[in-house]
Design goal:
71% of the residues lie in helices and 0% in strands. The longest helix is centred in the last third of the chain and has 25 residues. It is globular. By secondary structure, the chain is mainly alpha-helical.
Length: 231
């Protein structure tokens, strides 16, 4: 894939929703001429412009990953809070890693690659929610090495790691393309994270995917019951 393919999907998503460039520019608070340059690859979208796209119903997960889930699991996950979705993602990733490493699941190389770096998303307390710092620690890379892979200078990476800078659309794309870090985890987008989890479940074999889903839905119901009792 390439960043240009993400821009093609951006146009596809805009057409799917029957949104004009002028409407899109109003949604994300930029000029139409600037947005037109974004679709041509001449400008990048800033972090909060991507957030605005999420808030206006654009499928940002599809734009950056090319994945659309069938809806088999999505309706359940759409009802969960972002923090609970992060927990679900962690459980799912652990199950995939266990089955793959133990050799129980054959031919799971693709889905394993999708979850192997999710530790930097799960360890929110240790990394203060910062994906860049968490990723570098999981990779055991120097700042210079990760900066080189992401195509930024060390000063920019340091700012990203300490939340003094926010990633633009190209960096969000690179995080997914190189390490399968979900765009929704970078943008803190609940709808996108529901899509990510649903797509991962659909990538699994029917039996294993169903098992993980039943566990997660049961865990949610148990938690909800305990909360109702406390109230």
């Amino acid at each position: 894939m390439s960043y240009e393919s993400a821009l093609a999907r951006l146009r596809d998503e805009r057409w799917r929703l029957s949104v004009t460039q002028e409407q899109m520019s109003r949604y994300i608070h930029i000029s139409q001429s600037y947005y037109s340059k974004v679709e041509r690859g001449e400008r990048l979208l800033a972090y909060y412009e991507l957030k605005s796209m999420c808030e206006h119903g654009m499928d940002v997960h599809f734009i950056f990953t090319g994945q659309r889930c069938s809806g088999k699991y999505k309706e359940f996950f759409r009802g969960l809070e972002y923090s609970e979705l992060l927990g679900c993602l962690g459980v799912l990733a652990s199950a995939v890693k266990y089955w793959y490493v133990s050799g129980v699941a054959k031919g799971w190389e693709a889905i394993y690659r999708h979850v192997v770096f999710l530790g930097c998303v799960e360890n929110r307390q240790e990394t203060d929610g910062n994906v860049f710092y968490g990723l570098r620690k999981q990779l055991d890379y120097s700042q210079q090495k990760l900066a080189g892979q992401l195509g930024v200078d060390i000063k920019k990476l340091r700012a990203l790691e300490t939340n003094r800078a926010l990633p633009d659309s190209e960096l969000v794309y690179k995080l997914y393309d190189m390490y399968h870090i979900p765009p929704a985890a970078v943008l803190k987008d609940a709808e996108g994270l529901a899509n990510e989890i649903s797509c991962l479940l659909e990538m699994m074999d029917v039996e294993e995917g169903g098992l993980v889903f039943r566990f997660l839905s049961g865990l949610h119901e148990h938690t909800s019951r305990k909360e109702r009792v406390r109230i």
